[in-house]
Amino acid sequence: MAWLEAASVPAFERLMRELEAHGAPASLRNAARRAARDEVRHARTITALAEEAGARVPQVRVAPFEERSLEAIATENAVEGCVRETFGAAVAAVQAKRASHRGLRAAMRRIARDEAQHAQLSWAVADWIDAKLDAGARKRVRRMRERAAVELLREVSVDPSAIARRDLGLPSAAEARAMVLSLRVSLA
Ligand SMILES: [Fe+2]
Ligand SMILES: [Fe+2]
């Protein structure tokens, strides 16, 4: 979790620069900047908890940014944002209620709220980019988004360990599946 949070920082920084380069409205650019700041905070909080539990968090390495097409940005936003952040926000909300580890439960309350906003940002970015893509590109992005949901469904089909379910408050495979399925319905 700590690694994923840390990896989200450069992802939002990149999005922020790309939004700027493509002339996106200030509301989107500012939301991306806020999201990058949120992720710095999440990474710090979760890293502290992980280290307290004796884990070592691997460092995030990022390749230098290269310019991408709008379709490439839209595809990543659809997969990582519209599907994964939306699902992640829902999982965080479950953890905020269920984690037996008090420190984590408190951290997840804040994180769940932020992640819901990040998911919202993905949907706003998707709307903005969609209008700029031609019909073919829009269709390809939508197909990748659908594929990401199917892939996610596969990933959540294994039950987390009993300890992870109790201490971290993670949903069971059946619950996670139901969450992804309902996400797919709203995607459609
Ligand atoms: Fe986060
Ligand atoms: Fe996030």
Structural overview:
- The protein is mainly alpha-helical.
- The protein contains 7 helices and no strands.
- The chain has helices spanning 2-21, 26-52, 70-98, 102-130, 135-155, 162-167, 173-187.
- The structure holds fe (ii) ion (FE2) (2 copies).
- Residues 8, 39, 85, 115, 118 line the site of one fe (ii) ion.
Radius of gyration: 17 Å
Bulk shape: globular
What characterizes the major β-sheet? none
Bound small-molecule species: fe (ii) ion
End-to-end CA span = 29 Å
Low-confidence stretches: none
Strand residues, percent: under 5%
Overall mean confidence score, pLDDT: 96
* Number of E-type strands: 0
Structural class: mainly alpha
The number of helices is 7
- The helix-strand sequence is HHHHHHH
Helix content: over 70%
Short description:
The chain has 188 residues and is an all-alpha fold. The protein has helices spanning 2-21, 26-52, 70-98, 102-130, 135-155, 162-167, 173-187.
What brief labels describe this structure?
binds fe (ii) ion; 188 residues; mainly alpha
Give the arrangement of secondary structure elements:
Blueprint (H helix, E strand, L loop, with lengths): L1 H20 L4 H27 L17 H29 L3 H29 L4 H21 L6 H6 L5 H15 L1
The structure holds fe (ii) ion (2 copies).
